[in-house]
Amino acid sequence: MEEGKKLPLVEEFYTIQGEGYQAGKAAYFIRIGGCDIGCSWCDTKFSWDPDLYPLVETDRIILNARETKAKSVVITGGEPLMYNLDYICRELKKHDIKTFLETSGAYPLSGKWDWICLSPKQNSPPLKGIFEIADELKVIIQTQDDFHWAEKNAANVGANCRLYLQPEWSKYERMLAGIINYVKEHPHWQVSIQAHKFMHIP
């Protein structure tokens, strides 16, 4: 595991990306087990305990992705940066597959990425180095206080980083109108919704 040649695989599937900048595009998703951040609203709590999932040869995971028509792979979790992702990125790139990362930024970066989506969490804030290289900042909005958290993080990212506010799914109907109004008043932000849930796809 230290070299990243085995990973605790929760699930892998070829689907349509539903959130943020890449929404609507086909991608192969690799979900890795393990997360100690513990967001109360997390919709993948089943991925938190890595001991529940088998260690799978990373080469096998890569082959599974290659057997689809996917041009990009999204590595998510859990918190995928709990593991060394250098090997999986290097091998995917040998086959001209782009590598996308979804992370809280709470762990040191590994791997080479074509796109980094940073989704910061207040109970375990991002490490400083991730802000400058994030391509996308996606902040989950559950309460009014989260708008302040969003701006605090937006102040740290690069000028070309795309900024998204996304309603927490269980509070979608309650929070969406406020997010829309906020974006109208602060147009450096965009609204992100979990479109895959409306389409009833993984």
Please characterize this protein's 3D structure.
- With 202 residues, the protein is an alpha/beta fold.
- It has a single domain, classed as Aldolase class I (TIM Barrel, Alpha-Beta Barrel).
- Helix content is 25%, strand content 25%.
- The chain contains six helices and nine strands.
- The protein has helices at 58-66, 86-94, 128-131, 145-154, 172-185, 195-199, and strands at residues 6-16, 26-32, 55-57, 72-76, 98-103, 115-118, 136-141, 162-167, 189-191.
- It has a nine-stranded mixed β-sheet with strand order 3-1-2-4-5-6-7-8-9.
- Strand 7, helix 4 (145-154) and strand 8 form a beta-alpha-beta unit.
- The longest helix has 14 residues, at 172-185.
- It is globular and about 45 Å long.
- The model has no long low-confidence stretch (mean pLDDT 94).
Assembly type: single chain
Largest sheet: 9 strands, mixed
Q: What fold name stands as the CATH topology? A: TIM Barrel
What's the total count of β strands? Answer: 9
**Helix coverage percent:** 25-40%
Order of helices and strands: EEEHEHEEHEHEHEH
Summed over residues and divided by their number, the pLDDT gives a mean of 94
Q: Which segments are poorly predicted (pLDDT under 50) over 5 or more consecutive residues?
A: none
Strand line-up across the major sheet: 3-1-2-4-5-6-7-8-9
CATH class: Alpha Beta
The coarse silhouette is globular
Strand content: 25-35%
Q: For this structure, what is the CATH homologous superfamily?
A: Aldolase class I
Any idea what the radius of gyration is? Answer: 16 Å
Q: Number of helix segments?
A: 6
Tell me which CATH architecture applies here.
Alpha-Beta Barrel
Count of structural domains: 1
